[in-house]
């Protein structure tokens, strides 16, 4: 029976090569969680950093909180050998990727790698263009479980076709791999990525700042609020097995504690992949406790897989809602400004409807217990109005727990 269910969940499609790609839906029924080397280490990533990070993921309680994939981003690559097989950089990865994958697996974690659909990666290493099947086979032999596939140096390529080719190559290699489409939203991947990959970047790169644009010449990276604003209109495309990816997190990379908390909360409201991007071996206790907040993670990982939405704006405050299983809701009030803001919510004034998911928070007819996900306190019920003060660049995030009555 399991075999039949598994077969049904495979999405069949023809790759540009004529080889069929079979996407394994079950690999990402909730948004992938893990760590990626790029945001903190960029091109300095090495085998020792990966091993120490694997140890830290376990010691910090991140593995037990749900973080699974340890993804080595750009710059792990060395040269191709005489037969075209990619080799890891011999100085940074002297023991090779197979040994590293074995180490990561021995910790109960999974290993991810990065490549690029073009001739060279964004960090000017060999890309997979023309070597897709050979690279996918190499990754399978090494024991790789996740591939982030970038879009540098792709002039003249069709994005959907290029990603389909690698999806077909991964299928042919025979190892189940989470496939992350990273083409920055340039070719509207939310319209075609669902059949090909498990997640797709919706924007250019994130930067560790609240509301900034970092100018790199011919491209920009963006602060948390900028990236958040770029998600508008995309929630219709996300769901179990296929997620909008607003980029890896910058928690612990230099923003204030409030900003990190707000960033993490909003990524959970978006049902975003939760990919930490900080140095796990030296992180502070506040950073660790943000990244391992299980009640916030549960909002992100809710089995319904419904991406949250902005319900209302009131000056600097934004009110976001996300339907959860069992009739619960997550609510997050985001304070975009630097000064603290007061809020009064009279719950029974209006119901909240998610028309897309056909779910309603019926505040007039039903009762919800209000549970603060950052303090762990209960704040009463929706029977009475709620007053709150939200610090600058911070959030109030609560779970509205459905209280069943006699009619349920
Ligand atoms: C691009 C991606 C980043 C990172 C770098 C690596 O900019 O969007 O996430 O992978 O390339 O060079």
Compact summary:
The protein is α/β, with parallel strands linked by helices and 408 residues long. It contains eleven helices and 24 strands.
Write structural notes for this entry:
The chain has helices at 2-9, 38-41, 47-59, 62-65, 97-106, 132-142, 159-173, 224-229, 257-269, 285-291, 294-300, and strands at residues 10-14, 20-24, 33-36, 69-71, 77-80, 86-88, 110-116, 146-150, 178-181, 199-201, 213-215, 220-222, 243-245, 274-276, 309-314, 317-323, 329-335, 341-345, 352-354, 359-361, 367-372, 378-381, 386-390, 395-403. The chain has eleven helices and 24 strands. The strands form seven sheets. It has an eight-stranded parallel β-sheet with strand order 13-10-9-8-7-4-3-14. A six-stranded antiparallel β-sheet has the order 15-16-17-24-21-22, with helices on one face. Strands 1-2 form a two-stranded antiparallel sheet. Helix 6 (132-142) packs across helix 7, helix 9 runs parallel beside helix 10 and helix 9 (257-269) packs parallel to helix 11. The protein has two domains: 21-300, Aldolase class I (TIM Barrel), CATH 3.20.20; 309-403, Sandwich (Immunoglobulin-like). Mean pLDDT is 95; it is low at 1-16. It has 408 residues and is of the alpha/beta class. The two termini are 34 Å apart. It is 24% helix and 27% strand. The site of alpha-D-galactopyranose has 10 residues, from loops.
């Amino acid at each position: 029976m399991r075999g039949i269910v598994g077969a049904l969940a495979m999405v069949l499609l023809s790759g540009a090569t004529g080889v069929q790609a079979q996407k394994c839906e079950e690999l990402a029924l909730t948004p992938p969680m893990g760590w990626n080397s790029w945001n903190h280490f960029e091109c300095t990533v090495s085998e020792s950093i990966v091993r120490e990070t694997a140890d830290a993921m376990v010691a910090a309680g991140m593995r037990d909180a749900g973080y699974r994939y340890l993804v080595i981003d750009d710059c792990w690559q060395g040269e191709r050998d005489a037969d075209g097989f990619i080799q890891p950089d011999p100085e940074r990865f002297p023991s090779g990727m197979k040994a590293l994958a074995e180490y990561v697996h021995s910790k109960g974690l999974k290993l991810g790698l990065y490549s690029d659909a073009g001739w060279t990666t964004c960090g000017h290493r060999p890309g997979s263009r023309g070597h897709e099947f050979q690279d996918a086979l190499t990754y399978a032999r090494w024991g790789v479980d996740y591939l982030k596939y970038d879009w540098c140096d792709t002039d003249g390529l069709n994005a959907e076709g290029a990603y389909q080719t690698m999806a077909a190559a991964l299928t042919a290699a025979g190892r189940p791999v989470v496939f992350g489409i990273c083409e920055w939203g340039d070719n509207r991947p939310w319209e075609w990525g669902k059949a090909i990959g498990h997640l797709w970047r919706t924007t250019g790169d994130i930067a560790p700042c609240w509301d900034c644009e970092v100018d790199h010449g011919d491209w920009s990276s963006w602060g948390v609020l900028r990236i958040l604003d770029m998600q508008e209109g995309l929630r219709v495309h996300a769901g179990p097995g296929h997620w909008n990816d607003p980029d890896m997190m910058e928690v612990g990379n230099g923003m204030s504690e409030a900003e990190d908390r707000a960033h993490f909360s909003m990524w959970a409201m978006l049902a975003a992949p939760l990919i930490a991007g900080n140095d796990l071996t030296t992180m502070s206790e506040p950073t660790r406790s943000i990244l391992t907040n299980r009640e916030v993670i549960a909002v992100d990982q809710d089995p319904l897989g419904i991406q949250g939405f902005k319900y209302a704006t009131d000056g600097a405050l934004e009110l976001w809602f996300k339907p959860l299983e069992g009739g619960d809701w997550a609510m997050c009030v985001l304070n975009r400004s630097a000064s603290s803001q007061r809020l009064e919510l009279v719950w029974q004034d209006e119901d909240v409807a998610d028309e897309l998911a056909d779910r309603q928070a019926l505040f007039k007819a039903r009762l919800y217990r209000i549970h603060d996900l950052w303090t762990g306190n209960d704040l009463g019920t929706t029977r009475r109005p709620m007053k709150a003060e939200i610090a600058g660049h911070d959030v109030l995030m609560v779970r509205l727990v459905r209280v069943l009555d006699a009619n349920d």
